[in-house]
UniProtKB/TrEMBL annotation:
Domain Gfo/Idh/MocA-like oxidoreductase N-terminal, residue spans: 2-120
PANTHER family reported in the protein's UniProt record: PTHR43054, SCYLLO-INOSITOL 2-DEHYDROGENASE (NADP(+)) IOLU
Organism superkingdom: Bacteria
Species the sequence originates in: Parendozoicomonas callyspongiae
Protein name: Gfo/Idh/MocA family oxidoreductase
Segments forming domain GFO/IDH/MocA-like oxidoreductase: 138-247
UniProt cross-references to SUPFAM superfamilies, sorted A to Z: Glyceraldehyde-3-phosphate dehydrogenase-like, C-terminal domain (SSF55347), NAD(P)-binding Rossmann-fold domains (SSF51735)
Xref: InterPro entries: Gfo/Idh/MocA-like_OxRdtase_N, GFO_IDH_MocA-like_dom, NAD(P)-bd_dom_sf
């Protein structure tokens, strides 16, 4: 049983805790919050045994083997390195870091301490994502892909009302490409690797982060077009177009449905059943990595590639974080 603790007491931490519980491979030992009363309340809700309001003490604890980090993006590097340097395994919410330099520092800490660093990008571990991968050869030569994720943020009205929520605050290394757009970008990297060239544009809010934008990933014989937004909704699926057919993916982050349209007009539903809490699959992979059933190298390389691309995209769109300085 892998003994773990969580940093962060939001809904996403609750979702991971439930997913980890469903695998029967984890035991929740501790909860960290800067607010000890909130840590106590959250620990009670999820039956955690210990509470912490000091990260150094938690990192030194012999009670835990691993940590799930769901703090703001700007804190990922410092917190991950603290635990990795104490020999703890880390599953860190996406994006793993604010920029490439931080991601490289985190990967070095993992390797130097023989610990697992795993980015919590759930999409590429879903059964229906594997269906997409398996179906790609049926498309023949692929020329175009459109990966689309636009979702009106529940915090946008707060921003419009003059507040400064984390979601639209550069101090927390946030914005559309770092949140919604991440799913599109990481999906492309998981399917086709690093592109030869990137072209990006975005519309920035007065706070300095991107509200929405578009990215074109140029490969040797195909383009992948990414559309992302935190200030509008889209109900258009994603699509991969080949000479012999097309794959249509409903809600790319969850891969809810996968449909293959062959050139001869045949339509095949490739959708498999998935757990309601789709974080279950990333929790399973994290456990496999800790148990030595899988190698973490490809995941680390993908995280570094995505961090490199995110850094390039923000440079092109002139989104600057304090972490960049």
């Amino acid at each position: 049983m892998i003994r773990y603790a969580v940093i962060g007491t939001s809904w996403i931490s609750s979702s991971f805790i439930e997913a980890a519980k469903a695998t029967d491979r984890f035991q929740l030992m501790g909860v960290y919050s800067r607010d000890i009363d909130r840590a106590r309340e959250f620990a009670g809700e999820h039956k955690a045994l210990y509470i912490f309001d000091n990260l150094e003490h938690m990192a030194q604890s012999d009670l835990i083997d691993a940590v799930y980090i769901a703090s703001p993006n700007s804190m990922h590097c410092q917190q991950s390195c603290l635990f990795l340097n104490h020999g703890k395994h880390v599953i860190c919410e996406k994006p793993v870091a604010s920029n490439l330099k931080e991601a490289e520092r985190m990967v070095a800490a993992a390797r130097n301490n023989n610990a697992i660093l795993f980015e919590a990008f759930k999409t590429c571990h879903l059964p229906n994502f594997y269906q997409v991968q398996k179906a790609l050869p049926a498309l023949g030569k692929v020329h175009k892909a459109h990966l689309n994720y636009c979702q009106y943020s529940s915090r946008y009205q707060r921003y419009l009302d003059g507040e400064n929520p984390n979601t639209f605050n550069p101090a927390f290394s946030n914005g559309s490409i770092m949140d919604i757009g991440f799913y599109c970008l990481s999906t492309a990297v998981a399917l086709w690797g690093e592109p030869k060239k990137v072209s990006a544009s975005a519309h920035l809010l007065e706070s300095g982060v991107d509200a929405h934008g578009s990215v074109v990933l140029h490969y040797s014989d195909m383009d992948v077009i990414l559309q992302h937004s935190k200030v509008s909704d889209s109900f258009v699926p994603s699509e991969i177009q080949g000479e012999a057919g097309s794959l249509v993916i409903k809600q790319v982050s969850e891969c809810q449905e996968v449909t293959l349209y062959k050139k001869n007009a045949t339509k095949l539903n490739l959708t498999l059943h998935q757990e309601n809490n789709t974080m279950f699959y990333e929790a399973q992979v994290f456990a496999d990595l800790i148990d030595g059933r899988k190698s973490s190298e490809q995941y680390l390389q993908n995280s570094l590639t995505v961090a490199r691309l995110l850094t390039d995209i923000r440079k092109q769109t002139k989104v600057v974080f304090p972490a960049d300085r």
